[in-house]
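Same chain as my last thread, 171 residues:
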Amino acid sequence: MRKLCLVGLALALCGFLGGCKPQRTARGSMSSGHETRGYQMGDPVKTGPLVYTVLDTEWFDQIGDSAAPRLPRNHFLSVRISVTNTGSLTSGIPPLTIMDSQHVTYAEISDVKDLPEWLGYIRTVKPAETLHGSILFDVPTGNYGLKVVDDAEPENQSSALIQMPLELVRP
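reply #2:
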């Protein structure tokens, strides 16, 4: 009986110590939370009941009319996405972030005017419904990954990173 208790204690200790190690994410960075898987633009990416697809990106030096344009601190990055709810309940689409190659994150802009097809900041999607639209970031020019998450509580969220390579179009 004593040997059985010692074996059980050793197994519990191994499980505890293994659970304390930081995890490697799919991008190779260290993380103390859940694993974030990496995907490419155009791939449908499922996180919980939500399926995200990054359709296109576009860079702007300003948005709005030329008489009173909105100017960015860096550059505006518009990300056109679609989000489908595969669940049986209405789901919220959480605010999204992007991450650069140095793992610096940037939040989407919450007060956007004059961006065609802006998805909005507070948004929900009904079961079997798909929303299409654009979200906006103010960031330095570069390669980014869009971090997409489901609407679960933060400790239970699943997430993924969709790579968005830099593509500048010259006239």
